[in-house]
Amino acid sequence: MIYAYVGANDRAEWSAYSLAAQSLAMQGIEQARAAQWDPESWPVIDKLPVTNYTRVEKLDVLVSGTPVLATNYVSISTIATSPQIRQLRADCVWMLVSRYHDAAGPFTNTAVTFRASDQ
């Protein structure tokens, strides 16, 4: 019974971290989707350049002590030029701080979407 309780608690904690990391990955995607991109206008508006950037943020989980940090790697790449389509990808890398070293991670949550210039 004790092993089952400890295992269930461990899985619930991992799920909470994973959900918070997926939320951070989606935040990175939504920030990129909100950028203006209109290659048909004059002058051309392109605030969604092909680039990579990294942000370190706190996971939204309740932990006593120090905050749990995750690194969000966001990349924007061109998939097609006619019609113009870009891929938005966010990889959120995090560690489970309460576990012993061998099972603490790192773990990665990924979100990918495509965007056309008229969206």
Outline the structure in words.
The protein is α+β, with helices and mostly antiparallel strands and 119 residues long. It is 27% helix and 39% strand. The protein is built from 1 helix and 6 strands, in the order H-E-E-E-E-E-E. A 4-stranded antiparallel beta sheet has the order 3-4-5-6. A two-stranded antiparallel sheet has the order 1-2. It starts with a helix and ends with a strand.
Number of strands: 6
> Within the largest sheet, what's the order of strands?
3-4-5-6
Task: Quote the distance from N terminus to C terminus.
Answer: 53 Å
The major β-sheet equals: 4 strands, antiparallel
Strand content: 35-45%
Order of helices and strands: HEEEEEE
Mean pLDDT: 89
Q: What ranges have pLDDT less than 50 throughout 5 or more consecutive residues?
A: none
Radius of gyration: 18 Å
Overall, the morphology is elongated
Instruction: Report helical residue fraction.
Output: 25-40%
How many DSSP helices? 1
Structure class: alpha+beta
Spell out the blueprint of helices and strands.
Blueprint: H1 2-33, E1 37-38, E2 45-46, E3 51-58, E4 69-81, E5 84-94, E6 107-116
Antiparallel strand pairs: 1-2, 3-4, 4-5, 5-6
